[in-house]
Design brief:
Number of domains: 2
Cofactor: a divalent metal cation
CATH class of the largest domain: Alpha Beta
Helix content: 25-40%
Bound molecules: 3,4-dihydroxybenzoic acid, magnesium ion
Pfam families: AP_endonuc_2 (PF01261), Glyoxalase (PF00903), Glyoxalase_5 (PF14696)
Oligomer: single chain
Catalytic activity: 3-dehydroshikimate = 3,4-dihydroxybenzoate + H2O
Strand order of the largest sheet: 14-15-16-13-9-12-11-10-17
Radius of gyration: 29 Å
Shape: elongated
Keywords: Dioxygenase, Lyase, Metal-binding, Oxidoreductase, Pyruvate
Number of strands: 25
Strand content: 15-25%
Pathway: Aromatic compound metabolism; 3,4-dihydroxybenzoate biosynthesis
CATH architecture of the largest domain: Roll
Distance between the termini: 66 Å
Largest sheet: 9 strands, mixed
Number of helices: 18
CATH topology of the largest domain: 2,3-Dihydroxybiphenyl 1,2-Dioxygenase, domain 1
């Protein structure tokens, strides 16, 4: 694997905070951004020693601006400025300087002049044993493409002058970068990597505010990196990401996220295609665990709700205050030892949990300590970026008597009463629950967990999206952005290729202002039913309230869509929300928020609908807001 680098500008905090975070995350080398050095109270020598003490090297000092194409009267000052920076780099022990293409309005469009000036500057640098890497900014005054920057480097023809290729500047302007593979690799002095969402906006603003780590955006980072390496380039792959959120996030977390992106990128370079991100380690949701929280009402409310939905409390954990509730393949754990009511954990069904755990470790997922007692299932668990616990497991039915177990064939087949899918002697997680002996309630139509909706902390969203795609081997699906009552919300769905695991992530686009109520966005669990009217009527007859959907919503639905009159009437009568796509349609019911941070959604996918009803989220969020207001106002 190539050496990995990160620019100090990617991270938040003082220069020391940034360097310490880069070292802790395992980077080999750093780019020192000039502004970060200037702002540091430490001398260049102290910074050099600090970096060496961390086991890092400095691979680049940057940027040096407005060098080439300067009017002759200004170029004298450019030379003087360069000398000062070369002396600084001597003190710092930095061997390569980045010069980015000029943006000054007085820059002269004359390639011969520009090449000659670059040659002169390279000659000055060579006197210090320093190399210059010349980078075309996508918004450079005259030089804005990699081809043009290479042309000037070739013309200048000085051994101390080479190219800096920055994936953002290249890919933001063109898909035609194959020619980079034909460049002499030893003339590429430095490679910077940044991804970005595909946005139709001014390229400077796009670059300065929206860059992302590789594989977090929509640019072809794997293709770019493969092409650069094909040239024979053997230097570091260094991240240079200007991002408004990362600039205010914990640098230690950002640095780990950054390193994860490079590891995943290397995997993607080695194995093309989204499949490289994962090889279907996750084949289903084995269970979702809801924290009950400290409010004494929440547990009973959840139990009432699950009972009304047709779930049965089938098991009690042997050593923890955790209940198991089941209906068909939907399994929900209620954990009253958790202080917050939220989706505290979930388990993924995996054909090879140990392989899934190894993959997670390779991608720097934080392992959770195994807190099992002897004779309890040894489940591997990792922490998602927001702290949600994720288990990898293979679900086996509760152990069969020993004699029978020995004669039962092992295999990867779906668990049935007759087969165990865990190796002999290894407990399945269901064995950790003592049966309650409760008679299973008649089903209300609920068949499975459809998806989990995890509200993300403001500064963890891009990290979470990459985490779920790489660590869990899921793929990115539909994305949306909508205006909720207290600001814009961004949502992304991720799933396995077969749509057995679906998760949606959401985040406020901007940090919430003071006017917004001080409640956290709720998490929710969506259950699939094959008979929504039946599930709804079971809830109604149990007296469980559903979220009230405004009449305006139904009027708009009628205006937008030409629905069959019976369906139209049914949607209104059920108090459901509706969406459709090319494959089918979707009916959604919601419970009010329970315990501050959880609600359930019950959906029916008719005819193979593939979406998540994102179009309905603004109305649903406003309805939840109304419900909270009325729950709290004295009547
Ligand atoms: O936004 C800039 O000015 C800037 C500076 C240096 C770089 O390497 C770069 O890619 C962008
Ligand atoms: Mg750059």
């Amino acid at each position: 694997m190539a050496r990995t680098g990160i620019a100090t500008v990617c991270l938040s905090g003082t220069l020391e905070d940034r360097l310490n975070a880069a070292a802790a995350a395992g980077f080999d080398t750093v780019e020192i951004f000039e502004a970060d050095l200037i702002a540091s109270p430490r001398s260049p020598e102290q910074i050099r020693d600090h970096i060496a003490g961390l086991g890092l090297t400095i691979s680049l000092y940057q940027p040096f601006r407005d060098a080439e194409g300067a009017p002759p009267q200004r170029f004298a000052a450019t030379r003087r400025r360069l000398r000062a920076k070369l002396e600084l780099m001597d003190r710092l022990g930095a061997g390569t300087l980045l010069i980015c293409s000029s943006v000054a309005p007085d820059t002269i469009a004359d390639d011969d002049l520009a090449a000659d000036q670059l040659r002169q500057l390279a000659e000055l640098a060579a006197g210090h044993g320093i190399r210059i890497a010349y980078e075309a900014l996508a918004w450079g005054r005259h030089v804005s493409t990699w081809e043009h920057s290479w042309d000037l480097v070739r013309r200048a023809d000085h051994p101390a002058l080479g190219l800096c290729l920055d994936s953002f500047h290249v890919l933001s302007r063109t898909d035609r970068f194959a020619g980079i593979a034909d460049l002499p690799g030893d003339r590429i002095f430095f490679v910077q990597l940044a991804d970005a969402p595909r946005l139709d906006m001014d390229v400077l603003q796009w670059s300065r505010h929206h860059r992302l780590f590789p594989l977090q955006g929509g640019l072809d980072l794997a293709g770019f990196t493969r092409t650069v390496l094909a040239s024979g380039y053997a230097g570091p792959l260094s991240l240079e990401v200007f991002n408004d959120v990362f600039r205010q996030a914990d640098p230690h977390r950002t640095a780990v996220d950054a390193r994860r992106s490079l590891i995943a990128l290397q995997d993607a370079v080695d194995t093309p295609g989204e499949a490289a991100l994962g090889n279907a380690v996750s084949t289903g949701i084995a269970f979702a665990e809801l924290g009950v929280g400290d409010d004494t009402d929440t547990g009973p409310q959840l139990e009432t709700l699950l009972t009304a939905l047709g779930f049965t409390h089938t098991g009690q954990h042997r050593s923890k205050p955790v209940q198991l509730w089941e209906q068909n393949t939907a399994r929900i754990l209620l954990n009253s030892g958790v202080h917050e009511s939220a989706i505290h954990a979930f388990a993924l069904e995996s054909t090879d949990p140990e392989a899934a755990a190894r993959r997670a470790a390779h991608l720097l997922a934080a392992p959770l300590p195994r807190r099992r007692r002897q004779s309890e299932a040894d489940l591997t668990a990792i922490a998602a970026p927001d702290g949600t616990e994720i288990f990898f497991c293979r679900t086996a039915p509760p152990s069969l008597p020993a004699a029978e177990t020995r004669t039962t064939p092992l295999g990867d087949s779906a668990p049935t009463a007759a087969t165990r899918t865990t190796p002999l002697g290894q407990h399945g997680w269901l064995d950790d629950f003592l049966p309650t002996g409760e008679t299973p309630a008649p089903t209300t139509g609920v068949t499975a967990i459809d998806h989990l909706s995890l509200a993300q902390p403001f500064d963890r969203y891009d990290e979470a999206a990459l985490f779920y795609r790489t660590v869990l081997g899921l793929i990115g699906d539909e994305a949306s952005e909508f205006a909720a009552p207290f600001g814009l919300i961004r949502t992304l769905a991720i799933r396995d290729p077969e749509r057995r695991v679906r998760i949606t992530l959401s985040v406020p686009v901007l940090r919430r202002g003071d006017w917004a109520p001080a409640v956290r966005h709720p998490q929710h669990l969506t259950l699939a039913t094959d008979d929504l009217p039946r599930t709804a009527s079971a809830l109604r007859s149990a007296g469980v309230p559903l979220l009230a959907i405004p009449g305006n919503y139904y009027d708009d639905l009628d205006a937008r869509l030409t629905l069959d009159p019976p369906l139209r009437t049914r949607i209104r009568d059920l108090g459901a929300m509706y969406d459709e796509d090319a494959h089918g349609h979707y009916l959604q019911l919601f419970t009010p928020v329970i315990g501050g941070r959880i609600f359930l959604e019950i959906v029916q996918r008719v005819g193979g609908y593939r979406g998540y009803g994102f179009v309905n989220d603004p109305v649903r969020m406003a309805a939840h807001r109304e419900q909270r207001l009325h729950a709290h106002s004295p009547r």
